[in-house]
Amino acid sequence: MSDDPFAELERNNREFERQIADVPEEVITGLVDAGGAGGAGDTSGDWNLLLTLAAWKNSSGELSRESMRVKLPVTETLLNQLMNQIDPDSIIQVQARVAPHPNGFLQAIASEIISTNGTDAELSQVAEELQEPMVVDDPQFGPLTLDRAVDWYSGTVIWDGAQVQLNVSWENSDDIQQALEVARKLWENEAEWAARVDNFAVSKLLELKNDSWLDENEPQVTPDEFKARMTLEAITVYDDGDFDFWHSDGDLFWGHAIQITGNLTEGLQYADIPG
Known about the structure:
By secondary structure, this protein is of the alpha+beta class. Helices cover 29% and strands 38% of the residues. The strands form 2 sheets. It has an 8-stranded mixed beta sheet. Strand 10 and strand 11 form a beta hairpin. The protein starts with a helix and ends with a strand. Residues 138-273 form the DUF2262 domain. Residues 14-130 form the DUF7021 domain. It holds the Pfam family DUF7021.
């Protein structure tokens, strides 16, 4: 494996482009997943519509439940139009070439969106099944419900005496148990981690607050005041050992979130104020 994951991804993308150039186009009818349609631009100014099909049929009409990523080169204007037209759980038709990507997923490169409001009985049945709640009842954390839009399980838990949301992401595993083990490790030393997160936030962000984010006539914020104004809202754990602590900022940074990121092995690593 390459030491540079970005270089490896670029090589894989070039290999995929060579492979798919020889694949004939076909009409794909598919069910858009709960994430809906999105888009991205690149450094050259080109735009792409991006979405994932939760289930789909090729020209032969055979149903597949293997998820497939779809990419369509577009203008920025068309991108905005299509993002407004394509809803989560809708059925679309595209003209596309389909092939496995070297990174392990199925990819379609589309040349045209034929329809954004199609109908198909089998795909509609899949949509109904996917809209049924999927709940894992964990003995420690209670019921965790799958949020299909972000593909993680969420539930309400108690952390350091307060109610917060626990999000469990399991992108690299067959189930959520590995990610839940990350949560269990945090809860084993709950008081210690809570203090470490607060202190880390102060060490990384207090100077930024006092140098650049004070309101007019607002006095310098002390470490204790900084901690008191932060309110933990959610903890997200990942199956690779990473985690995020998400806080409301108590208007320290005018409504930005406070994100503290770490890893069970390497400890706390990063503080940010996204949003």
